[in-house]
Design a protein that fits this description.
The chain has 13 helices and 2 strands. It is mostly helical. The protein folds into 2 domains: 40 residues; 231 residues, MetI-like (MetI-like fold, Orthogonal Bundle), CATH 1.10.3720. The chain has a two-stranded antiparallel ribbon. Helix 4 crosses helix 7 and helix 5 crosses helix 11. The radius of gyration is 25 Å and the shape is flat. The model has no long low-confidence stretch (mean pLDDT 89).
Length: 299
Protein backbone atom coordinates (compact mmCIF):
# COMPACT_ATOMS: atom_id res chain seq x y z
CA UNK A 1 0.00 0.00 0.00
CA UNK A 2 1.56 3.27 -1.12
CA UNK A 3 1.56 6.19 1.25
CA UNK A 4 0.07 9.55 0.25
CA UNK A 5 3.56 11.01 -0.21
CA UNK A 6 4.58 8.14 -2.48
CA UNK A 7 1.39 8.45 -4.55
CA UNK A 8 1.98 12.18 -4.92
CA UNK A 9 5.59 11.62 -5.99
CA UNK A 10 4.58 9.00 -8.56
CA UNK A 11 1.81 11.24 -9.89
CA UNK A 12 4.18 14.23 -10.06
CA UNK A 13 6.81 12.23 -11.94
CA UNK A 14 4.17 11.21 -14.47
CA UNK A 15 2.21 14.46 -14.88
CA UNK A 16 4.51 17.10 -13.41
CA UNK A 17 5.11 18.91 -16.71
CA UNK A 18 1.36 19.08 -17.30
CA UNK A 19 0.83 20.69 -13.90
CA UNK A 20 3.58 23.24 -14.56
CA UNK A 21 1.88 24.47 -17.74
CA UNK A 22 -1.67 24.08 -16.44
CA UNK A 23 -1.25 26.01 -13.18
CA UNK A 24 -0.76 29.51 -14.74
CA UNK A 25 -3.77 28.89 -16.99
CA UNK A 26 -5.96 27.92 -14.03
CA UNK A 27 -4.77 30.95 -12.06
CA UNK A 28 -5.56 33.23 -15.01
CA UNK A 29 -9.01 31.61 -15.38
CA UNK A 30 -9.75 32.00 -11.68
CA UNK A 31 -8.76 35.68 -11.58
CA UNK A 32 -10.15 36.93 -14.90
CA UNK A 33 -13.07 34.52 -15.50
CA UNK A 34 -14.34 32.75 -12.40
CA UNK A 35 -14.01 35.66 -9.95
CA UNK A 36 -15.82 38.20 -12.20
CA UNK A 37 -18.65 35.70 -12.80
CA UNK A 38 -19.15 35.10 -9.08
CA UNK A 39 -18.69 38.76 -8.20
CA UNK A 40 -21.21 39.90 -10.80
CA UNK A 41 -23.73 37.38 -9.45
CA UNK A 42 -23.30 38.84 -5.96
CA UNK A 43 -23.78 42.32 -7.43
CA UNK A 44 -27.23 41.37 -8.72
CA UNK A 45 -28.44 41.42 -5.11
CA UNK A 46 -26.86 44.77 -4.25
CA UNK A 47 -27.06 48.46 -5.03
CA UNK A 48 -23.48 49.54 -5.68
CA UNK A 49 -22.85 52.86 -7.48
CA UNK A 50 -19.05 52.17 -7.42
CA UNK A 51 -18.51 54.91 -4.85
CA UNK A 52 -19.20 53.58 -1.37
CA UNK A 53 -20.07 50.17 -0.02
CA UNK A 54 -22.45 47.78 -1.80
CA UNK A 55 -25.89 47.76 -0.19
CA UNK A 56 -27.80 44.50 -0.09
CA UNK A 57 -31.28 44.91 -1.60
CA UNK A 58 -32.32 41.32 -2.18
CA UNK A 59 -34.26 40.56 -5.37
CA UNK A 60 -35.13 44.18 -6.22
CA UNK A 61 -32.80 44.29 -9.23
CA UNK A 62 -34.30 41.10 -10.64
CA UNK A 63 -37.87 42.32 -10.06
CA UNK A 64 -37.02 45.68 -11.63
CA UNK A 65 -36.26 43.87 -14.89
CA UNK A 66 -39.92 42.85 -15.29
CA UNK A 67 -41.05 46.45 -14.82
CA UNK A 68 -38.50 47.97 -17.20
CA UNK A 69 -39.99 48.42 -20.70
CA UNK A 70 -36.69 49.65 -22.11
CA UNK A 71 -34.97 46.41 -21.07
CA UNK A 72 -37.56 44.34 -22.93
CA UNK A 73 -37.33 46.65 -25.93
CA UNK A 74 -33.54 46.18 -25.90
CA UNK A 75 -33.99 42.40 -25.80
CA UNK A 76 -36.48 42.55 -28.67
CA UNK A 77 -34.17 44.79 -30.72
CA UNK A 78 -31.37 42.29 -30.19
CA UNK A 79 -33.56 39.38 -31.31
CA UNK A 80 -34.64 41.29 -34.44
CA UNK A 81 -31.02 42.18 -35.14
CA UNK A 82 -30.15 38.49 -34.91
CA UNK A 83 -32.71 37.65 -37.62
CA UNK A 84 -31.20 40.33 -39.84
CA UNK A 85 -27.67 39.15 -39.15
CA UNK A 86 -27.26 35.40 -38.59
CA UNK A 87 -28.71 33.78 -41.74
CA UNK A 88 -27.35 36.43 -44.19
CA UNK A 89 -23.89 36.15 -42.63
CA UNK A 90 -23.88 32.37 -42.95
CA UNK A 91 -25.28 32.46 -46.49
CA UNK A 92 -22.85 35.11 -47.72
CA UNK A 93 -19.89 33.33 -46.11
CA UNK A 94 -20.89 30.07 -47.80
CA UNK A 95 -21.33 31.75 -51.20
CA UNK A 96 -17.92 33.44 -50.98
CA UNK A 97 -16.32 30.15 -49.90
CA UNK A 98 -17.88 28.36 -52.88
CA UNK A 99 -16.55 31.04 -55.22
CA UNK A 100 -12.95 30.86 -54.03
CA UNK A 101 -13.13 27.05 -53.77
CA UNK A 102 -13.59 26.86 -57.55
CA UNK A 103 -9.85 27.45 -57.87
CA UNK A 104 -10.21 30.03 -60.62
CA UNK A 105 -7.40 32.43 -61.43
CA UNK A 106 -7.21 35.24 -58.88
CA UNK A 107 -9.08 33.33 -56.16
CA UNK A 108 -6.23 33.94 -53.72
CA UNK A 109 -6.48 37.70 -54.29
CA UNK A 110 -10.23 37.71 -53.75
CA UNK A 111 -9.81 35.57 -50.63
CA UNK A 112 -7.64 38.32 -49.13
CA UNK A 113 -9.99 41.02 -50.40
CA UNK A 114 -13.05 39.43 -48.81
CA UNK A 115 -11.15 38.91 -45.54
CA UNK A 116 -9.88 42.51 -45.41
CA UNK A 117 -12.86 43.92 -43.42
CA UNK A 118 -12.24 41.33 -40.70
CA UNK A 119 -8.78 42.70 -39.92
CA UNK A 120 -9.77 46.35 -40.42
CA UNK A 121 -10.57 48.43 -37.34
CA UNK A 122 -14.28 48.52 -36.58
CA UNK A 123 -14.03 52.27 -36.04
CA UNK A 124 -12.74 52.69 -39.60
CA UNK A 125 -15.44 50.42 -41.03
CA UNK A 126 -18.10 52.30 -39.04
CA UNK A 127 -16.85 55.63 -40.38
CA UNK A 128 -17.11 54.35 -43.94
CA UNK A 129 -20.58 52.94 -43.26
CA UNK A 130 -21.72 56.23 -41.75
CA UNK A 131 -20.60 58.04 -44.91
CA UNK A 132 -22.24 55.49 -47.21
CA UNK A 133 -25.58 55.68 -45.40
CA UNK A 134 -25.61 59.37 -44.64
CA UNK A 135 -29.23 60.43 -44.50
CA UNK A 136 -28.86 63.44 -46.79
CA UNK A 137 -28.92 63.93 -50.54
CA UNK A 138 -25.10 63.95 -50.71
CA UNK A 139 -24.85 60.52 -49.03
CA UNK A 140 -23.42 57.84 -51.31
CA UNK A 141 -26.37 55.46 -51.08
CA UNK A 142 -28.85 58.29 -51.53
CA UNK A 143 -27.00 59.47 -54.65
CA UNK A 144 -27.19 55.91 -55.98
CA UNK A 145 -30.90 55.68 -55.15
CA UNK A 146 -31.44 59.02 -56.87
CA UNK A 147 -30.12 57.51 -60.10
CA UNK A 148 -32.83 54.85 -59.78
CA UNK A 149 -35.49 57.47 -59.19
CA UNK A 150 -35.91 56.66 -55.47
CA UNK A 151 -36.29 59.44 -52.92
CA UNK A 152 -33.49 59.97 -50.35
CA UNK A 153 -33.71 57.79 -47.25
CA UNK A 154 -32.85 58.70 -43.67
CA UNK A 155 -31.19 55.33 -42.97
CA UNK A 156 -29.54 55.71 -39.54
CA UNK A 157 -32.00 58.45 -38.57
CA UNK A 158 -35.04 56.30 -39.35
CA UNK A 159 -36.21 53.96 -36.58
CA UNK A 160 -37.43 51.46 -39.19
CA UNK A 161 -34.15 51.36 -41.12
CA UNK A 162 -31.39 51.95 -38.57
CA UNK A 163 -31.24 48.40 -37.20
CA UNK A 164 -31.09 46.93 -40.70
CA UNK A 165 -28.21 49.26 -41.60
CA UNK A 166 -26.33 48.21 -38.45
CA UNK A 167 -26.92 44.55 -39.33
CA UNK A 168 -25.50 45.22 -42.79
CA UNK A 169 -22.40 46.72 -41.19
CA UNK A 170 -21.87 43.63 -39.01
CA UNK A 171 -22.44 41.30 -41.97
CA UNK A 172 -19.86 43.20 -44.02
CA UNK A 173 -17.42 43.09 -41.11
CA UNK A 174 -17.51 39.36 -40.34
CA UNK A 175 -18.56 37.58 -43.55
CA UNK A 176 -14.86 37.15 -44.42
CA UNK A 177 -14.30 35.05 -41.30
CA UNK A 178 -17.33 32.84 -41.99
CA UNK A 179 -16.00 32.46 -45.53
CA UNK A 180 -12.76 31.02 -44.13
CA UNK A 181 -14.65 28.55 -41.93
CA UNK A 182 -16.74 27.34 -44.85
CA UNK A 183 -13.71 27.24 -47.14
CA UNK A 184 -11.93 24.96 -44.65
CA UNK A 185 -15.03 22.76 -44.53
CA UNK A 186 -15.21 22.55 -48.32
CA UNK A 187 -11.56 21.48 -48.45
CA UNK A 188 -12.34 18.56 -46.12
CA UNK A 189 -15.11 17.10 -48.31
CA UNK A 190 -13.68 14.07 -50.20
CA UNK A 191 -13.32 14.81 -53.90
CA UNK A 192 -14.36 11.24 -54.69
CA UNK A 193 -17.94 12.08 -53.74
CA UNK A 194 -18.09 14.79 -56.39
CA UNK A 195 -16.60 12.45 -58.99
CA UNK A 196 -19.19 9.78 -58.18
CA UNK A 197 -21.99 12.35 -58.43
CA UNK A 198 -20.65 13.55 -61.78
CA UNK A 199 -20.57 10.01 -63.12
CA UNK A 200 -24.19 9.51 -61.99
CA UNK A 201 -25.16 12.60 -63.97
CA UNK A 202 -26.00 14.78 -60.97
CA UNK A 203 -26.36 18.50 -61.70
CA UNK A 204 -24.27 21.08 -59.84
CA UNK A 205 -27.33 22.28 -57.93
CA UNK A 206 -28.32 18.75 -56.91
CA UNK A 207 -24.73 17.94 -55.91
CA UNK A 208 -24.61 21.00 -53.69
CA UNK A 209 -27.82 20.17 -51.81
CA UNK A 210 -27.20 16.42 -51.52
CA UNK A 211 -23.45 16.34 -50.87
CA UNK A 212 -21.86 19.69 -50.09
CA UNK A 213 -24.49 21.29 -47.86
CA UNK A 214 -25.20 18.22 -45.63
CA UNK A 215 -21.50 17.44 -45.15
CA UNK A 216 -20.90 21.00 -43.99
CA UNK A 217 -23.25 20.48 -41.02
CA UNK A 218 -20.44 20.77 -38.39
CA UNK A 219 -19.38 24.06 -39.99
CA UNK A 220 -23.01 25.25 -40.07
CA UNK A 221 -23.25 24.46 -36.36
CA UNK A 222 -20.02 26.25 -35.44
CA UNK A 223 -20.79 29.31 -37.56
CA UNK A 224 -24.35 29.45 -36.20
CA UNK A 225 -23.04 29.39 -32.63
CA UNK A 226 -20.45 32.16 -33.09
CA UNK A 227 -22.77 34.36 -35.16
CA UNK A 228 -25.56 33.95 -32.61
CA UNK A 229 -23.25 34.91 -29.76
CA UNK A 230 -21.92 37.82 -31.80
CA UNK A 231 -25.41 39.06 -32.67
CA UNK A 232 -26.52 39.10 -29.04
CA UNK A 233 -23.33 40.88 -28.00
CA UNK A 234 -23.68 43.65 -30.58
CA UNK A 235 -22.59 46.94 -29.06
CA UNK A 236 -19.92 48.82 -30.99
CA UNK A 237 -22.00 49.74 -34.05
CA UNK A 238 -24.88 51.01 -31.89
CA UNK A 239 -22.43 52.96 -29.76
CA UNK A 240 -20.48 54.49 -32.65
CA UNK A 241 -23.25 55.22 -35.17
CA UNK A 242 -26.62 55.66 -33.46
CA UNK A 243 -26.07 55.84 -29.67
CA UNK A 244 -29.06 53.55 -29.32
CA UNK A 245 -31.37 55.81 -31.33
CA UNK A 246 -33.47 56.91 -32.95
CA UNK A 247 -36.22 56.35 -30.37
CA UNK A 248 -34.22 53.46 -28.83
CA UNK A 249 -34.69 51.48 -32.06
CA UNK A 250 -31.04 50.35 -31.96
CA UNK A 251 -30.70 50.01 -28.21
CA UNK A 252 -29.48 46.44 -27.84
CA UNK A 253 -29.22 44.57 -24.58
CA UNK A 254 -25.44 45.02 -24.38
CA UNK A 255 -25.70 48.73 -25.16
CA UNK A 256 -28.40 49.10 -22.50
CA UNK A 257 -26.24 47.10 -20.11
CA UNK A 258 -23.38 49.52 -20.79
CA UNK A 259 -25.61 52.52 -20.13
CA UNK A 260 -26.92 51.11 -16.87
CA UNK A 261 -23.53 49.96 -15.62
CA UNK A 262 -21.11 52.66 -16.74
CA UNK A 263 -23.30 55.71 -17.35
CA UNK A 264 -25.97 55.40 -14.66
CA UNK A 265 -23.59 53.44 -12.37
CA UNK A 266 -26.29 50.86 -11.55
CA UNK A 267 -23.88 47.95 -11.54
CA UNK A 268 -26.29 45.61 -9.78
CA UNK A 269 -28.99 46.03 -12.40
CA UNK A 270 -26.41 45.85 -15.20
CA UNK A 271 -25.28 42.51 -13.78
CA UNK A 272 -28.87 41.24 -13.95
CA UNK A 273 -28.97 42.21 -17.64
CA UNK A 274 -25.69 40.37 -18.18
CA UNK A 275 -27.12 37.19 -16.69
CA UNK A 276 -30.28 37.52 -18.77
CA UNK A 277 -28.04 37.78 -21.84
CA UNK A 278 -26.16 34.66 -20.75
CA UNK A 279 -29.39 32.69 -20.23
CA UNK A 280 -30.72 33.68 -23.68
CA UNK A 281 -27.50 32.72 -25.47
CA UNK A 282 -27.21 29.49 -23.50
CA UNK A 283 -30.77 28.40 -24.35
CA UNK A 284 -30.38 29.22 -28.04
CA UNK A 285 -27.06 27.36 -28.13
CA UNK A 286 -28.71 24.27 -26.65
CA UNK A 287 -31.38 24.35 -29.37
CA UNK A 288 -28.72 24.75 -32.05
CA UNK A 289 -26.75 21.90 -30.51
CA UNK A 290 -29.76 19.60 -30.62
CA UNK A 291 -30.67 20.21 -34.27
CA UNK A 292 -27.30 21.02 -35.83
CA UNK A 293 -24.61 19.50 -33.63
CA UNK A 294 -24.69 16.06 -35.21
CA UNK A 295 -21.72 14.05 -36.39
CA UNK A 296 -21.20 13.75 -40.13
CA UNK A 297 -19.69 10.71 -41.84
CA UNK A 298 -17.79 11.19 -45.09
CA UNK A 299 -18.07 7.50 -45.97
Amino acid sequence: MLTRKERFKRNWNKYGLVYVFLTPILIHFAIFQLFPILFSFVLTFTNWPVIGEPQYIGMKNWLALFKDPLAWKAIWNTIVFSFYYIVPTMALGLILALLINMGKKGSGFFKGLFFLPVVTSFVVISGIWSWLFKGTEDGFMNMFLNLLGIEPQLFLSDSNQALIVLAGLSIFKVCGSTMIYYYAGLQSVPHELYEAAKIDGSSSWNTFWRITFPLLLPIHFYVAIITTIGSFQIFDSAFLLTSGGPSQSTTTIVYYLYQEGFTSLRLGYASVLAYVLFIIIFCISLVQRKYMGKEVSYK
